[in-house]
User: What shape does this take?
Amino acid sequence: MFDPTDPADLVQMVALRAEFDDALLGRFQGAPSGEHGIGRLRADVLPRVWGSEVYAAMRAIKDAMDPHGLLNPGVMFSSAEWWATWGGLEDRQPL
Assistant: This one.
């Protein structure tokens, strides 16, 4: 069981996520998601999935079409940590 409000659990989850991503993207040459949920939780690995050139081109298109970042803010092209979008964790209160 993982409690995202417990700092020790969060550290362990971050380490497991890094290990998972390295295995999936490196050893298995896979992708972190088939369809849904990739935009927020997997945004940080998208440059590794698509390659830096494709990622930069997609980012440029997004910036050109949405210069103020109003459409789906923080989705796919976010610099925030993957757990930052989990609502309610700001105060780190137990569930």
